[in-house]
Design brief:
By secondary structure, the chain is an alpha+beta fold. The chain has one domain: Umud Fragment, subunit A. Helices cover 34% and strands 27% of the residues. Strands 1-2-7-3-4-5-6 form a seven-stranded antiparallel beta sheet. Helix 1 crosses helix 3. It is elongated, with a radius of gyration of 22 Å. 18% of the residues are buried.
């Protein structure tokens, strides 16, 4: 394998390590990637006035860390938690605040902080609890997604430049 390919592979490995470490730093803990999901919030339904809850509000373009829910996890949900469920109307997951819990019918009632409508769904339909929010990280994700081709090109060019610089240093005759 030539040096340019080796440098490029090393750069990709370093970028992956930085991404994993960065996500741990962003969320102030080590993420359990097997039981977590990271999503960018694209609507303003949770961008309301700050609340006293652990997850106060979720501005548009924020990156959220979601702890995936399984089976009995629904029993641990409290009013004020932000949980998600799949919405066929929205074509994806919706994360809203729990405003009521019916333990007899085993249903949650959720509402966005910036909406008047509520949704009711069963405990078994809940698929995740938002455990952390970071607006800056979300903006970075959106920027990278919008400019991914340019970023990859720049990384490739930097790898080539590093190899050329290394070649010049090795062959310097002084």
């Amino acid at each position: 394998m030539d040096r340019a390919k080796t440098c490029l592979i090393a750069a990709v490995i370093i970028m992956a390590a930085v991404a994993v470490t960065g996500s741990a730093m962003v969320f102030n803990k080590s993420p359990n990637l097997l039981n977590a999901g990271f999503y960018v919030v694209l609507t303003d339904s949770m961008d309301g006035e700050p609340t006293e809850y652990e997850i106060s509000t979720i501005p548009v373009n924020s990156l959220i860390a979601v702890h995936k829910m399984h089976g009995d996890d629904a029993q641990d949900i409290e009013i004020g938690d932000v949980i998600g469920h799949y919405s066929s109307l929205m074509g994806g997951n919706v994360y809203h605040r729990v405003v009521a819990i019916d333990t007899v019918d085993q249903t949650f009632v959720t509402q966005g902080d910036n909406t008047h409508a509520t949704e009711t769904f069963s405990f078994s339909e809940a698929n995740g609890k938002v455990v952390n929010v970071n607006h800056t990280a979300g903006e970075v994700v959106i920027f990278v997604k919008a400019h991914l081709l340019i970023i990859v090109f720049i990384m490739f060019m930097l790898a080539i430049m590093a190899e050329a610089f290394s070649y010049l240093l090795r062959n310097w005759k002084g």
